[in-house]
Design a protein that fits this description.
This protein is an alpha+beta fold and 179 residues long. The protein is built from three helices and nine strands. Helix 2 (63-78) packs parallel to helix 3.
């Protein structure tokens, strides 16, 4: 069931005035912090401009954090994360044959909830994660066209150029979405 007001791929690609919803302020540049743990503070995700589709690059200090940030990045393509209220939580499970396949399956499961019930998440907690299975709790609400600025209508997370890798102690994933 399409949500009224969201842009399909053809509408998005044919209108030069379309603007994506602003990403969270957490999308600031990657910086090194000084702190006892010496952890890296990094942006959570960034939007990749791709002709005909939409993409994102997600970052995390761990694989669970990477999955969480990829989900938030995807939701930010649909509407502003700040406008989403926490009204209900849903359990999400997905399986895949590789880490890349698992990420795609997880994101597609979130898209399924949005397509069928209009449910959009703001907070994601990864409960369990292995190489081929993820269980998460996603908290948010039903998409409301009166309160949520419509962004893109995402059809699916694709395997095209999907990439999950560990670089310099942190994780990065690239995902392209069919819109």
């Amino acid at each position: 069931m399409p949500v009224p007001g969201l842009l399909s791929g053809s509408e998005y690609n044919n209108d030069p005035c379309i603007r994506l919803p602003a990403a969270e302020p957490a999308c600031a540049c990657r910086t090194q912090t000084g702190g006892a743990a010496g952890k890296i503070n990094m942006k959570k995700f960034e939007i990749i401009d791709i002709s005909g589709d939409a993409g994102l690059r997600a970052f995390g200090n761990s694989v669970p954090e990477l999955f969480k940030n990829a989900a938030k990045g995807m939701y930010s393509l649909i509407t502003s994360l700040k406008s989403i209220e926490i009204k209900e939580s849903r359990g999400v499970k997905a399986s895949g044959e590789s880490l890349e396949g698992l990420l795609i399956a997880f994101l597609n499961e979130l898209i399924f909830y949005f397509d069928t019930d209009g449910f959009i998440g703001r907070e994601i907690t990864i409960e369990r994660l292995s190489e081929n299975h993820v269980e998460a709790t996603v908290s948010g609400e039903a998409f409301d066209t009166d309160r949520h600025e419509p962004g893109l209508l995402i059809k699916a997370a694709t395997y095209h150029n999907v990439n999950v890798r560990k670089t310099n102690g942190s994780w990065e994933a690239s995902v392209i979405f069919d819109i």
